[in-house]
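dude i think i finally got it to work??
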Amino acid sequence: MMKFLSVWRAMACVGLYLAMADAALATSPQAQWLHWQQVAGQAGQASRGQVFFTQKHGGEWSCASCHGQPPTQPSRHASTGKTIAPLAPAFHAERFTDSAKVDKWFKRNCKDVLSRECTALEKADVMAYLIGLK
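look at this
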């Protein structure tokens, strides 16, 4: 009986840990925006975000190349043609609700557009722009 209780307690602890890990990854567009502003040490601005989103930055692509302008409708990846759901959170409720995915896609897409990772301020600006689209 004691062995059963020990196994049960261990399983309960693992379940609690996994639930806490999932909760830690859960976020919101506003929380992401606040996070990047805090890291940058200044407020993100929608006007700068819109300019950043539409510029090619010396490369072949801009953010808008794949996500559309404005990014409120489904669009297609510039090279693969794969369908991309709307990027603006008001038009796709799941956008920016998983911290791990947000980090992954900012890293990948910034490298595609800029050939480097985006700064915290660039992320805050883009988030301000996207949150403002209604």
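Confidence is low (pLDDT under 50) at residues 13-23.
im so relieved honestly
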